[in-house]
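Chapter summary example.
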Amino acid sequence: MPTNPLTHFNPQGQAQMVDVGEKTETPRQAMATGSILMKPETLARIVEGSTRKGDVLGVARIAAIQGAKRTADLIPLCHPIALTKVSVDFAIDKETNRVHCTARAECFGRTGVEMEALCAASIGLLTIYDMCKAVDRGMRIEEVRLLEKSGGKSGHWTAN
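The structure predicted for these 160 residues follows.
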């Protein structure tokens, strides 16, 4: 284990991009989730497809995939990754007036895809907010978190 477990800092405490050049390429996967809470009438508009901006979840899915692909442009010390797959699923929860987002990212590489999965989930939820804010500015994005990751030296990890 390194003396400084925060690998994005050098021994002098300065930010650095982690050197992954000596790491082995392995299949890597990550899954992240989050939700957006809204008024019942906002959720009904999404389900009915009656928002002015069109298919909210369809646009949010494309935005989430694009977000995963652009992670290295958004998070300063992330490596650009050649993603092999990104999938995004939305689930309507009428009981709690939420849309849940689950994003999965995969690659064959030297560093994990956790940030790509987290970015995808976040961007998908932010897109829902953007498309519905005219009718519900009080929406809340909640519980964005990593659910699972696999691959690499640290192996498989699952959230509790």
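To summarize the output: The CA atoms of residues 73 and 122 lie 15 Å apart.
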